[in-house]
Amino acid sequence: MVSSSHEAMHRIFQHDPGLFSRVSHFLGVDVPTPVKATVLPTDLTENSPVERRVDTLLRLETAEQGAFLLAVEAQGKKDPDKPASWAYYAAYLWTKYRLPTALLVVCQDHATARWAQQPVCSGPPQLPTLTLTPLVAGPHNMPVITDPEEARADLVLASLAAITHAADTVVNEIPKALSTALRDAPEDIADPIVEFTAQGLGNRPAKHLWRNLAAVDLSFYKSYISEEIRDEGRAEGRAEDILLVLEQRGLDVSDDVRSRITDCTDPELLRLWLMHAVTAPKAEEIFGDQ
Fold first, then answer.
1. Distance in angstroms (rounded) separating the CA atoms of residues 223 and 241
2. 224 C-beta neighbours (distance < 10 Å), count
3. Dist CA 112 CA 106 (whole Å)
4. Mean pLDDT, consecutive 10-residue segments, the chain of 290 residues?
5. CA 18 → CA 13, 260, 271, distances in Å?
6. Which residues contact 270 (CB under 8 A, 6 or more apart)?
7. Domain limits of the chain?
8. 187-200 vs 206-216: helix axis angle to the nearest 10?
9. What was the pLDDT predicted at 115?
């Protein structure tokens, strides 16, 4: 099953195709800013029982280098079958569109990034017929953006920085800078950034920080995306309040009770449980007749 963080890691390049030229600086290459970008179909399946589908495919045009294709793959872990698939993508796209093809792999951990950037040859050692060398964006080379002014200068890059550093200890400072920068952004610009960041952080601890920041710093946004994130942030905060009240009263909180509280996403039900937590003689009794 495709995760939300997987989708965010490549769809952010669909949202802003020019991001690739800005990211390339951190990858050790210099790709000109595209003057035109087209999102292409991602299904690369031919008359074969094996489906080949790239995550994101863009046709970029630059004033200096002309047109080229960019295939973006989000990779969450090492997969020995992927290099062969990536080689197929590059060869197929070159054949179909007759355009130079670049491959960008976006990762969220150092081990996967190191694995993904290793050159892979399809032929025997003495006959390296086709050598695959992907560009890799990950925590090893993406910037750590902790200054709101720097985040404001490139909101999409700041979002990608938070996504690629999601598993790093430095990640908490990036959402703080990004949420501050988004306060001045128009809602139609901020909404996709809020969504990409929330999705890209996945189930990692930084997700809770981002949702709390969205609930407080970005409270003036009224879109369904922002409202959904705020509702989740409020629910998580209220669940923590319930547990804190029970623990301060010296009541034993079983794993079942804790799980039921933290898994609940209904703000009104959590509010009711919080009221019960103040007087209930046992933690189990905060749920009433439910």
1. 27
2. 8
3. 9
4. 79 89 87 88 66 86 90 92 90 91 94 93 78 92 93 94 90 88 84 86 81 63 53 65 82 87 80 82 79
5. 8, 44, 45
6. 235, 238, 239, 242, 261, 264
7. 4-137, 144-221, 236-290
8. 160
9. 95
